[in-house]
Amino acid sequence: MTTQKRHPKNLLRFLSLGLIGPWLLWLSGCSTVQVSHDYERQADFSQIQSLSWLPAEDQTAPKAVDFAKDNPLIAKRIEQAIEDQLPAKGLKLVDADTDSDAYMTYHASTEKTVGSSPFGTSIGMGTGTGSVFGGVLWRTNPDIETQNESVLKIDLLDQNHQLIWRGTGTTVLPDHPDTTTLDERIHEMVQEILQQYPPKP
């Protein structure tokens, strides 16, 4: 009777497919944006079909108009991303001097925070004499690192400029994101935030 040896490379491939594969699939399926929302329960959102940007003098801090002065390029990306998502919600953007059903504005900020990776990424493998065995070792100590946490809030206000809906999104940006990354992250944030609108009682 012959005993078939299992080659260490085959074992490594097996373990990689069995353990690393699902982990990578889990990561790729996770959104990079954490979202939440709140709203005025008495508001009738079914009556809102048109929106206009809230005038600067009626905005509350941190004002979108102030953010746009300091970050004009990012502000344009945010505003364009919001406008792009409105038709999917049955909403249209009208000029400020046109009567609209409601108003909208946003608040954007980025802060340096201290974060940590929830688990390590190193794997240890081992082989023994006579027979082959594999040992898998996950490094469980979290990696402490600083990160840029960006927060975007999108507000809807009634005709009296009273807040009736707020959607909030939080994501982490690299230290020096390129234009493609900024476009993708901002569109993702806006899309994830507005997916919560209209609120479901």
What does this structure look like?
By secondary structure, the protein is of the alpha/beta class. It has a domain at 32-116 and 145-194: Double Stranded RNA Binding Domain (2-Layer Sandwich), CATH 3.30.160.670. The protein has helices at 8-29, 64-70, 72-85, 179-194; strands spanning 34-39, 50-53, 92-93, 102-116, 144-157, 163-173. The chain has a 6-stranded mixed β-sheet, covered by helices on one side. Helix 2 packs across helix 3 (72-85) and helix 3 (72-85) packs across helix 4 (179-194). The longest helix has 22 residues, at 8-29. The radius of gyration is 24 Å and the shape is globular. The protein starts with 7 loop residues before the first helix and ends in a 7-residue tail after the last helix. The relative contact order is 0.21.
Record the SSE blueprint.
Blueprint: H1 8-29, E1 34-39, E2 50-53, H2 64-70, H3 72-85, E3 92-93, E4 102-116, E5 144-157, E6 163-173, H4 179-194
Parallel strand pairs: 2-3, 2-4
Antiparallel strand pairs: 1-6, 4-5, 5-6
Task: Summarize, please.
With 201 residues, the protein is α/β, with parallel strands linked by helices. It has helices spanning 8-29, 64-70, 72-85, 179-194; strands spanning 34-39, 50-53, 92-93, 102-116, 144-157, 163-173.
